[in-house]
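Saturday, quiet lab. Running sequence design on the C-alpha cells for the scaffold JK sent over.
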C-alpha cells in the first residue's frame, strides 16, 4: 500500500512538472550568428541570404552572407526567415487568464478615475497564455489596464521573465482614457447581439475629466509639490511628452472630440486605440499627427450599411492617408497569438506590400509605444529580440517558429498547446481499449 501511494505521488509530481511553463531563458553567454536566412529588417528592407550577429543581448551586425561571424556560435537557418520580435499593443496578456475565474483577472480596479493604477505590477509572467503567443513570434506585449474613465498606466513587457521586474522593457509608457462617447454599446446575452443606445452619463463624465485634467496640468507645473498627490503625479508625464495618452474611441465623432480634448490641455502625444470608424476622421488624424492602434480586423463593421470588408481594409485606408498604424487584439487576449495573421489579412485588403504590413506589428508599434530605439527593427545596436520562422510569418500555413531570442536569450518554445497536442496525438494513435 505504501509503495502504491509513493508511486501515485511520484506520478502526480511528474505530471505537474510537465504541465508547468518552461523556465525563463538564461542570459546570452556567447555571440550567436544566424546565417543563410531571408532577413526581414522591419523597416521595409529585406536581405536575401543574410546574416545577423548578436552578443550580450544586442545586435552587432546585420548584412549579407559576407558578414563576419568569427568567434560566434553559428546557427544555419538557410531557407528560413528572420523577423524582429512582434509587438502586441493594447493587450490583456499577463493580466487575465480565465475570464470566468475572478482570481485570475487583474486588469481593472474599482473606481472611475484611476490614473495611479499600474498594470506593470499585475503582469503575471507565469501565465500559460504567454508561451502560446511567444510561439507565434510575439516577444513583446503592452500590458494595459481596463475599467473606469481613466484606467491607469500601461507598460511594455517581454514575454519571458521570472517576474515583472525581469520582464519589463518600459515602465508606465502611457495613460489610458475611455472616452465617454455619444453612444454606449449593450450586449444581449440571449442572442449575442450588440445594440447602441444613447450615453446618458456622457456630460457628467466629461465634466469630471475636465476637472481632473485641469488639476493635473496645474500640478505638473509645480516642480516639487508638497504633499505629493499620487493620482496627479501619475499624470505628470502626459504634459511633458514622457508618456502617451491612449484614448479608446471608435466612432468618428468621438475620435475627433477626444483628440481635441487632449490638445486643449497641451498633451503632445495622443494615440487612438480601437478606431473602428477611423476612416471617417482620416484628414483630422493626419492633420494632428495622431497614430492609431486598430482593434482586431476579423470582425463585422460597426454599421449595417457599411461594406462587410471595411474592417479588413481599414489598415490600408489609414496607411495610404499617411497615418501611423499598428494592429492589436485589444482585450481579446486569448486571440493574441494570431496577431501576425491580422497583418497578413491587411496585405490582401489594401496594404499590398508584405513588408509594410509587417511594420504594423513591429516598427510602427515600436514608434507609437516609444521603444523604437531598442526594438522593432533588426539593426545594429538594437536589442536582439527576434525569431526564426520556417516560412512566411504572416501566413498561418507556413509560420512555424523554430527559434526565438529575447535580448539575446534563447527562449524555450514549449507551451500548453504543444503539450496537449502531443498528449492527444499519442492517445488517438493508440488502439481502442476495453470493448
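Result came back. Writing it out in full:
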Amino acid at each position: 500500500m505504501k509503495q502504491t501511494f509513493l508511486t501515485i505521488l511520484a506520478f502526480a509530481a511528474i505530471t505537474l512538472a510537465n504541465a508547468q511553463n518552461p523556465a525563463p531563458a538564461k542570459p546570452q553567454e556567447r555571440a550567436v550568428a544566424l546565417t543563410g536566412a531571408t532577413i526581414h529588417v522591419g523597416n521595409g528592407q529585406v536581405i536575401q541570404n543574410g546574416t545577423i550577429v548578436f552578443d550580450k543581448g544586442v545586435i552587432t551586425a546585420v548584412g549579407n552572407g559576407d558578414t563576419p561571424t568569427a568567434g560566434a556560435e553559428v546557427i544555419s537557418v538557410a531557407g528560413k526567415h528572420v523577423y524582429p520580435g512582434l509587438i502586441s499593443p493594447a493587450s490583456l496578456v499577463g493580466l487575465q487568464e480565465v475570464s470566468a475565474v475572478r482570481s485570475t483577472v487583474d486588469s481593472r480596479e474599482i473606481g472611475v478615475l484611476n490614473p495611479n493604477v499600474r498594470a506593470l505590477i499585475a503582469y503575471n509572467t507565469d501565465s500559460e497564455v504567454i508561451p502560446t503567443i511567444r510561439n507565434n513570434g510575439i516577444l513583446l506585449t503592452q500590458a494595459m489596464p481596463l475599467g473606469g474613465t481613466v484606467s491607469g498606466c500601461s507598460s511594455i513587457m517581454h514575454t519571458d521573465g521570472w517576474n515583472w521586474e525581469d520582464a519589463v522593457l518600459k515602465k508606465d509608457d502611457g495613460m489610458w482614457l475611455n472616452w465617454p462617447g455619444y453612444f454606449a454599446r449593450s450586449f444581449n446575452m440571449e442572442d449575442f447581439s450588440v445594440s447602441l443606445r444613447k450615453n446618458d452619463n456622457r456630460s457628467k463624465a466629461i465634466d469630471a475629466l475636465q476637472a481632473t485634467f485641469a488639476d493635473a496640468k496645474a500640478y505638473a507645473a509645480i516642480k516639487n509639490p508638497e504633499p505629493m498627490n499620487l493620482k496627479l503625479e501619475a499624470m505628470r508625464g502626459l504634459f511633458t511628452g514622457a508618456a502617451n495618452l491612449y484614448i479608446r474611441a471608435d466612432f468618428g465623432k468621438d475620435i475627433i472630440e477626444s483628440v481635441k480634448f487632449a490638445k486643449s490641455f497641451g498633451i503632445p502625444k495622443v494615440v487612438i486605440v480601437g478606431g473602428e470608424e477611423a476612416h471617417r476622421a482620416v484628414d483630422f488624424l493626419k492633420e494632428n499627427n495622431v497614430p492609431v492602434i486598430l482593434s482586431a480586423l476579423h470582425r463585422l463593421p460597426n454599421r449595417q450599411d457599411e461594406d462587410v470588408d471595411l474592417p479588413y481594409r481599414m489598415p490600408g485606408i489609414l496607411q495610404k492617408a499617411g497615418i501611423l498604424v499598428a494592429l492589436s487584439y485589444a482585450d481579446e487576449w486569448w486571440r493574441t497569438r494570431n496577431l501576425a495573421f491580422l497583418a497578413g489579412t491587411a496585405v490582401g485588403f489594401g496594404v499590398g506590400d508584405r513588408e509594410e504590413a509587417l511594420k504594423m506589428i513591429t516598427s510602427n508599434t515600436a514608434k507609437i509605444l516609444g521603444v523604437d530605439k531598442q526594438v522593432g527593427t533588426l539593426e545594429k545596436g538594437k536589442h536582439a529580440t527576434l525569431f526564426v520562422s520556417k516560412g512566411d510569418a504572416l501566413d498561418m500555413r507556413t509560420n512555424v517558429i523554430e527559434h526565438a531570442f529575447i535580448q539575446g536569450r534563447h527562449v524555450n518554445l514549449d507551451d500548453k498547446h504543444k503539450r496537449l497536442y502531443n498528449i492527444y496525438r499519442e492517445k488517438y494513435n493508440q488502439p481502442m481499449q476495453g470493448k
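Notes for JK: Confidence is low (pLDDT under 50) at residues 4-18. The longest strand covers residues 168-178. Ask whether to fix the surface positions before the next round.
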